[in-house]
């Protein structure tokens, strides 16, 4: 299907009115009735796609958004992708054409206000998450935001508050929670396999940023675009340890940039990198347990991801996302722990190695929108992760432990872990 012309910013009326965008979407959807996000008496947004049975989703960002979110949503029975947005409209058009999406645009502000959109995925570089999520939330849309949630805690807190105020379902895409080994580890920990948590460590040495002539310069290498590996992967790792071990009380850490120049995309010459490609941090959990996370993205080879969790009664180890081993005190040697049988999904496997966990997280998001059930990882979870990331940077410059959750304005209220 050919993408429709981009929508202009001009002439966009207040919510519920009709704009060029609305006309485009409505026409493209062959007359389906468009409706704004109406509200239940309790303030939670009503799903306006309920009549059609499918949630109408717009995806902003065609990198990970185009490669993973769009195909995942396209194969889910409960969702349809009604629009895709990129900075360059032709990028959006390419993804729209490949997936039969009726609207391609470069104007996210108009898109999020369109009454033909029920929910928005924000999959753009992190420095854009705050303005884009706020715009979507303000328009009453459910939001799924990519990680890291924001540039800093102040932005994240803002997003939490706006989502609460609008009564919509707002989640952060920490999809690793939905990989079989990690989900099983969570189940075992909740059942008491570890006993009292004592220690957690996560180490990844990889080569993704080792070669200055390999991956070109981009937002990931720029501090002012909220690039850096601490945000890009550290956010996932902090989320995992917090999910398994509970709230984090204090943090100490440091970041470093080992590869300081990187080739410019499509041009001769090198750009200066100021975002981190290495980081190491120490965590003290509220229950007294200690944790470490050490990531090197400039190693000559790939070690895989190694996670060890120990408690008073047991120990678990995750090797990548495929293997879980463990032992219980006095019950023999470390042994393989069976994971639930997974249905083979050739389509997901062919799309991206994260297609399955992302689909599972999207399923949680849609279920929460439909039923009003709580969903995690929520914006509140994302803000608590963000507080840890901010703490690492402060600790690195100030040379001390940083206490979290103190002061009059906590990152977010209590969450269900
Ligand atoms: N959950 C995960 O496991 C996972 C994995 C990878 C990435 N991510 C996250 O996904 C986000 C995007 O990363 P990426 O790797 O996909 O980056 P990317 O390849 O650089 O793609 C960024 C996308 O954002 C679009 N964009 C930039 N500015 C925009 C604007 N003003 N309006 C509309 N669209 C705009 C870009 O448009 P153009 O193409 O026209 O420039 C592009 O489509 C990041 O937060 C990243 O951390 C998450």
DSSP E strands, number:
17
Mind telling me the C-alpha Rg?
22 Å
**Within the CATH hierarchy, at the fold level, what is the topology of the largest domain?**
Dihydrodipicolinate Reductase, domain 2
- Poorly predicted runs: 1-50
Mean pLDDT: 88
CATH class of the largest domain: Alpha Beta
Bound molecules: NADP nicotinamide-adenine-dinucleotide phosphate
Please characterize this protein's 3D structure.
InterPro entries: Gfo/Idh/MocA-like_OxRdtase_N (IPR000683), Gfo/Idh/MocA_oxidrdct_glycsds (IPR050463), GFO_IDH_MocA-like_dom (IPR055170), NAD(P)-bd_dom_sf (IPR036291). Keywords: Oxidoreductase. By secondary structure, the protein is an alpha/beta fold. The chain folds into two domains: 20-175, NAD(P)-binding Rossmann-like Domain (Rossmann fold, 3-Layer(aba) Sandwich), CATH 3.40.50.720; 176-354 and 380-403, Dihydrodipicolinate Reductase, domain 2. The chain contains eleven helices and 17 strands. It has helices at residues 20-28, 64-75, 89-99, 108-113, 129-138, 153-166, 180-190, 229-245, 346-351, 355-371, 379-398; strands spanning 55-60, 79-85, 103-105, 119-122, 142-145, 170-172, 197-205, 248-256, 261-263, 270-272, 278-285, 290-296, 304-311, 314-319, 323-328, 335-336, 402-403. The strands form three sheets. The chain has a nine-stranded mixed β-sheet. It is globular. The two termini are 43 Å apart. Mean pLDDT is 88; it is low at 1-50.
């Amino acid at each position: 299907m050919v993408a429709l012309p981009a929508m202009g910013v001009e002439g966009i009326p207040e919510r519920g009115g009709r704009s060029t965008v609305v006309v485009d979407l409505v026409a493209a959807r062959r007359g389906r009735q468009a409706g704004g996000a109406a509200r239940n008496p309790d303030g939670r947004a009503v799903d306006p796609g309920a009549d059609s049975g499918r949630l109408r989703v717009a995806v902003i960002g065609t990198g990970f958004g185009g490669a993973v979110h769009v195909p995942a949503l396209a194969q889910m029975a409960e969702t349809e992708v009604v629009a895709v947005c990129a900075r360059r409209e032709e990028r959006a058009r390419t993804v729209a054409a490949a997936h039969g999406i009726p609207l391609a645009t470069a104007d996210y502000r108009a898109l999020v206000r369109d009454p033909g959109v029920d929910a928005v995925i924000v999959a753009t570089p992190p420095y854009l998450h705050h303005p884009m999520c706020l715009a979507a939330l303000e328009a009453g849309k459910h939001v799924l935001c990519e990680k890291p949630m924001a540039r800093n805690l102040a932005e994240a807190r803002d997003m939490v508050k706006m989502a609460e105020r609008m009564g919509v379902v707002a989640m952060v895409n920490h999809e690793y929670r939905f990989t079989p080994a990690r989900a099983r580890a969570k189940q075992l920990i909740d059942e008491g396999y570890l006993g009292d948590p004592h220690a957690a460590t996560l180490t990844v040495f990889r080569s993704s940023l080792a070669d200055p002539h390999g991956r070109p310069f981009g937002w990931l290498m720029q501090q002012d675009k909220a690039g850096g590996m601490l945000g890009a992967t550290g956010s996932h790792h902090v989320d995992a340890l917090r999910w398994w071990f509970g709230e984090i009380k204090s943090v100490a850490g440091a970041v470093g940039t080992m590869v300081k120049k990187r080739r410019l995309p499509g041009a001769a010459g090198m750009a200066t990198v100021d975002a981190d490609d290495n980081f190491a941090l120490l965590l003290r959990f509220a229950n007294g347990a200690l944790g470490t996370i050490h990531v090197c993205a400039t190693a000559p080879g790939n070690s895989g991801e190694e996670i060890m969790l120990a408690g008073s009664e047991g120990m678990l180890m995750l090797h990548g996302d495929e293997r879980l081993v463990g032992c219980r005190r006095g019950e023999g040697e470390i042994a393989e722990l069976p994971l639930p049988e997974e249905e083979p999904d050739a389509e997901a496997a062919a799309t991206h190695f994260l297609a399955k966990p992302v689909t599972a997280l999207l399923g949680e998001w849609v279920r929460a929108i439909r039923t009003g059930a709580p969903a995690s990882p929520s914006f509140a979870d994302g803000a608590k992760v963000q507080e840890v990331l901010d703490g690492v940077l402060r600790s690195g410059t100030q040379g001390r432990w940083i206490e979290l959750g103190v002061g009059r304005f906590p990152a977010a209220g209590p969450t269900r872990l």
